[in-house]
Amino acid sequence: MASPIADLSYRDYDGPLMPPTFRWWVIAKQGILIASKKRGLQVLSFLSAWYYLAMMVILFFIGRFAGGNTGRSLDPIMKRIVWKDQFLHGFSYAQLPLLLIALILGAGAIANDNRSRALLVYLSKPCTKMDYLFGKFIGVFLPMFLIIAVPTTIFYGYCSLSFADYGFLRDAPWLLPQILVVIFFSTAMNSALVLAVSSMLDQGRLAGAAYAAMYFISNFFTFAMLGTWRATEGTSEPAKTLFYASIDGIQIGLCKAVLATSGTTPFGAPDPNAGNALPIPPPNLWGTLAIMLFITLGSLFLAWRRIRAVEVV
User: Fold this and answer.
1) Which of 28, 74, 166, 218 satisfies CB 3.0 to 4.6 Å to 139 for a cystine?
2) Would residue 17 count as lying in a domain?
3) At what angle do helices 175-199 and 129-162 cross, to 10 degrees?
4) CA–CA separation, 124 and 20 (whole Å)
5) What is the CA radius of gyration of the chain?
6) Which residues does 169 contact at the CB level (< 8 Å), separation at least 6?
7) Considering its fold, how many domains does the chain have in total?
8) Is there a domain that residue 285 lies in?
9) How many CB atoms are closer than 10 A to CB 32?
10) Residue 278 has pLDDT above 80, yes or no
11) Mean of the per-residue pLDDT values for the chain?
12) Integer CA distances (angstroms), 296 to 195, 200, 212, 247, in order
């Protein structure tokens, strides 16, 4: 037999009743807490910043080696380093770890709720479809953004303090806000895409496999376009445009367009094939940004349509 409620003090409460304004944050916070306990997230977070860490170690030892010579021996090395390209490399080399992080954070975000019929519970409470979707989106977007933005900011601070005399701040006065804008839009697109795939399935593993397949199939296409570009000695306009027609390609294209660079060799190393490298120029900035916004908003709309408080047979 059910016992009566012992504490009835709530019946005399006459204080303010606050509206549930941040319902989405409860969902986002829960998603972040669950994902943070998954094995491998910390390792992948470290791997996503490996280029910045390696660059700081290299620059530190070069500076210590040249310290006894008033820094003049650093000049030949510093002249080879294009600072904005170091941020381009750091962002580019983080793409694969960020894919795996997106799978950990978002592959099962909606799919597992579909399997457990949790949407029946979520949407039976004072929680709208928009609250639910926005909470899931922030739960994927916020950790991914911080994972790449924090090491980028640390690397920028290190370079601005250590290499201001070598033109770092003069050559790249707006570099940090530019790269943070790139990270914002690329992370938003990744988060929306993985949630759209997750909303169409009822198992997180299947959603992760589907998103990974999309990523790698589109990546193989860009490698084919790169081969065509080099085979035509940089004269194929379709290859130049379609090189960025992949999940990571369009993100790298946005980074190149915002930083206005085609890229140089990593770590400022001399390129023995500089005359034959044929770096692919950046795409049109506004066109690339428009495509990314279309993909992001379209993916969120698709996920919103798939969120239904009905039992799927």
Assistant:
1) 28
2) no
3) 150
4) 14
5) 24
6) 160
7) 1
8) yes
9) 15
10) no
11) 82
12) 10, 16, 17, 12
User: What whole-number distance in Å separates Cα of residue 74 and Cα of residue 61?
Assistant: 11
Q: Any idea what DSSP says for residue 190?
A: H
The stretch 47-67 carries a mean pLDDT of 83
Tens digits of per-residue pLDDT, 167-190? 777 766 788 999 999 999 999 999
Q: Helices (H), strands (E): how many in the chain?
A: 15, 0
What is the extent of the structural domain holding 102?
A: 23-29+39-64+74-306
For 109-133, the pLDDT digits (tens) are: 898 888 888 887 777 777 888 889 9
Residue 6 within a domain = no
CB-based contacts of 35: which residues, under 8 Å, 6+ apart?
41, 104, 105, 139, 143
Provide the whole-model pTM.
0.85
**Would you say residue 270 has pLDDT above 70?**
no
Q: Is 7 among the domain residues?
A: no
Buried b (16+ CB within 10 A) or exposed e, 55-66: bbeebeeeeeee
